[in-house]
Amino acid sequence: MSERETSERDSLPADVQQRTWATGDYRSIGARFLLAAELLCEAARLRAGEEHLDVATGTGNTALAAARRSARVTAIDLVPELLAHAARRAEAEGLTIGFRQGDAEALPVPDAAYDLVTSTFGVMFARDQEQAAAELLRVTRPGGRIALACWTPSGYMGRMLALNTKYRSPAPGTRPESRWGTTEGLRELFGPDVAIEAGTRELWWRFSSPEEHVRAWCRTYGPTVMTVESLDAAGRESLVADLTELVHELNTDEETVLMPLEYLEIVIRR
Q: Residue 62 gets which letter from DSSP?
């Protein structure tokens, strides 16, 4: 294999991830996850003046939450459009955050540089999960913390992501993203030399109806948009039906959608 072919092969996962999250409109999705970011900073006991890195920052929810708490924040994401949106939000609030484009599997920062490293529904989507976990450990100072919010396999998001694979096969060897949302998966990823504290939380999803939620989801959430675009008309109809059935199953309200989104809130100490 030539050097050029090797380079193209190695860059493919990042290219696919960048295209996935640039598809649709994650801004409207991320706006619904604000509470998880705020709670994660509280769970991590973030202190003023700490060096903080937010990985796969997306629209910047956790980076902004940390900056409001007087941390010294760097935020990294693959998608330039999302970084630009996050930077506009920071400017509007008068917050200082260093935004950088980069891959969670090869973070462009030095070893042991941060007191706190976070990711809110972000790093769990890395293609090479072991490499992403190793990178989080690499950049965390001895005695520092890694704080994560990750979807569980049993919640709506975990089940929805699993449903996507029914219609669009993942790359060979790919592990479910929701592996990060289990204590067993975290032990496999981070090894025995860390202390892991984890507990489940819920966000609540609100839409006027299950059908309206599914319509919006298929337009805005990158992984689902990519799946929809890969299907023929019959496949799209089947996926929409399965998603609608899932929402009906988990919905707690008879008139609208009031649906729990279960996730695991995690603090890992080196």
A: H
Backbone angles phi, psi at 247, to 5 degrees: -65, -45
- What are phi and psi for residue 78, nearest 5 degrees? -75, -25
Cα–Cα distance for residue pair 246/210, rounded to 1 Å: 9
Q: Which domains does the chain have, with CATH numbers?
A: 3-153+171-202+261-269 (3.40.50.150)
Contact indicator for 120, 33 with CB cutoff of 8 Å: yes
| Mean pLDDT in order along the chain per 10 residues (270 residues) | 37 75 93 97 98 98 98 97 98 98 97 98 97 98 98 97 92 91 98 97 97 96 95 97 98 97 97
- Cβ neighbors of 231 (< 8 A, separation 6 or more) are 167, 168, 239
User: What does 4-37 look like in DSSP terms, one character per residue?
Assistant: HHHHHHHHHHHHHHHHHHHSS-HHHHHGGGHHHH
CA dist 155 and 259 (Å) reads: 10
